[in-house]
Design a protein that fits this description.
Number of helices of chain A: 0
Order of helices and strands of chain B: EEEEEEEEEEE
Largest sheet of chain B: 6 strands, mixed
Oligomer: heterodimer
Largest sheet of chain A: 7 strands, mixed
Radius of gyration of chain B: 14 Å
Structural class of chain A: mainly beta
Helix content of chain B: under 10%
Strand content of chain B: over 45%
Number of strands of chain B: 11
Distance between the termini of chain A: 37 Å
Number of helices of chain B: 0
Number of strands of chain A: 11
Helix content of chain A: under 10%
Order of helices and strands of chain A: EEEEEEEEEEE
Chain lengths: 117, 114
Amino acid sequence: GAVVSQHPSRVICKSGTSVKIECRSLDFQATTMFWYRQFPKQSLMLMATSNEGSKATYEQGVEKDKFLINHASLTLSTLTVTSAHPEDSSFYICSARPYAGPSDTQYFGPGTRLTVL
Amino acid sequence: SQQGEEDPQALSIQEGENATMNCSYKTSINNLQWYRQNSGRGLVHLILIRSNEREKHSGRLRVTLDTSKKSSSLLITASRAADTASYFCATVLISSGSARQLTFGSGTQLTVLP
């Protein structure tokens, strides 16, 4: 089946530092990848939609200069949280939609737990 | 705001019983999907039902969709302790165009007691 990996799975950093999270589709090509944020015991909130070779589309209220997204290839998207602060602590999940196949099925990565001290 | 509201928020049942979760949404959809999330993990796609479908089955899962009421239900039959997880409905809105993003409901935490 379609597998999506995320790295790192957990990161703890000091306030003010930047953190990069990678999302890879391992056995398929993904024209579109999505980044979500999930607070404890809450649902997933879409942050941005990332298309290979073009700028990401951010949801309302998500700062594009703070959450930098790069989708350089059909198998890799990265999310960089710049100058992270404690309120950015959350569970970040990516998903990928295959280039071929049912267009609405998304395959999710295992998530990255970010803790900003 | 969230497109979908789910109820109950939490459900606790005995192994072998059936579990039913409901999802309501507000605007017209292209399709509705159900996902499962184990604690601290990513989501696993369970089933997709299109707006012109009324019922779909997959193993022990049964999903219904009532577009007139803008609601869906997920039934898990003969539940097992391993079914313990959070379950989310997610919709692809007609208004999402070619992007076809998912809009998630609030989720139901299912606990199956052995």
